[in-house]
Specification:
The chain is of the alpha+beta class. The protein has three helices and six strands, in the order βββββαααβ. The longest helix is centred in the C-terminal third of the chain and has 10 residues, at 104-113. The structure holds zinc ion (3 copies).
Length: 123
């Protein structure tokens, strides 16, 4: 599955992933597992996960596979649907609908629109 990688990545001899060049993980086939952001839909190296397991492109979307990203429900009152992003504040997590309602979906859309600047998709 094609995935997005940072254009400025460097692949070293000690890199444990031949996509992103991270020395993190240690997968025997030298590829991080891929993960698709639940908010912006960007498929990327699981090792991209920022602090808290959020997407490196939109910064708030949850990357499935991080223990800190799994099993969260939307924190908006009376909602309880599966969360797609970490939004902080009292709700902490939001589903797609609440992400749109609180305006953060625009932020995610902008990150996707500008993705080509720093990221490139590789097979
Ligand atoms: Zn990787
Ligand atoms: Zn994302
Ligand atoms: Zn919700």
């Amino acid at each position: 599955m094609p995935r997005w990688v940072r254009k400025d990545r460097r692949i070293y001899d000690f890199s444990l992933c031949t996509y992103c060049g991270t020395a993190w993980g240690g997968y025997p086939n030298r590829q991080c597992p891929s993960a698709t952001c639940r908010a912006c839909g960007t498929t990327q190296c699981l090792g991209n996960g920022l602090e808290n397991g959020t997407c490196a492109v939109c910064s708030i979307g949850l990357l499935p596979g991080w223990s800190s990203s799994n099993g969260w429900l939307c924190g908006y009152k009376g909602c309880g649907r599966d969360a797609v992003a970490r939004v902080g504040g009292q709700a902490k997590f939001a589903c797609a609908e609440h992400l749109a309602r609180n305006g953060k979906a625009d932020y995610v859309a902008r990150a996707v629109a500008e993705r080509d600047l720093a990221w490139t998709e590789v097979a």
